[in-house]
Amino acid sequence: MSRHGLLELEAVLAIAARNSFRAAAPELGLSTTALSNLIGKVEGQLGVRLFNRTTRSVSLTDAGRAFVEQVAPALREIQEAMATARSQQEIPAGTLRINAFASGAREILAPLLLEFLRRYPQVHIDLVTEGRIVDIVAEGFDMGIRTADLVPSDMIAVPLGPPRSFAVVATPSYFEANGKPSVPPDLLSHRCVRIRLPNGALYRWHFEKEGKSVQIDVDGPITLDEATLARIAVLEGIGIGFFMEADVREDIAVGRLERVLQDWTPPTAPLCLYYPGRKNPPAAFRAFVEMARTLVRGAMRSV
Question: Which molecular-function annotation in GO is an example for this chain (predicted)?
Answer without folding.
Answer: DNA binding
